[in-house]
Amino acid sequence: MMSKLRHWISSPSGIRKIINVYGPYLGAGVRVTHIDDDYRSAAVEMKLNWYNTNYVGTHFGGSLYSMVDPMYMLLLMNRLGKDYVVWDKSASIEFVRPGRGTVSAYFEVTDERLEDIIQATADGSKHLPEWDVNITDEQGELVAKVRKVLYVRKKKQ
């Protein structure tokens, strides 16, 4: 029973289901709509609801950021495996236009980017890869830009 549970929570579909009921995501109305089987990419969306609006009736900035917060760390941890330490280091968000309706974001860790990270950390050095993520509305208009910086290091053997 325990091995089935462990497998379920380590599979992309299991992780997606868990994240979708995780308090901060559930409370903000964020929904993970996709995680690739190989953790190469993921997508999230958030509908505008009474509980994630700000004073002027558009998406609350904290909820917009929460859409993006764990996704690159999650993808990279699963692509690199247990021999690496992966942490969020920093982030910034630029609000471009008010978010209304459903907003979404897409994340991708390409094979080339993964190989760059593996090479940069091969000798045990830390590496601080950066990603830019666009949050867009239903018309494809840019709502916010987020820059994520991760901390990656190969574990000492």
TrEMBL record:
UniProt xrefs under SUPFAM superfamilies: Thioesterase/thiol ester dehydrase-isomerase (SSF54637)
Classification via InterPro entries: DUF4442, HotDog_dom_sf
Descriptive protein name: Acyl-coenzyme A thioesterase PaaI, contains HGG motif
Record-linked Gene3D superfamilies: Hotdog Thioesterase (3.10.129.10)
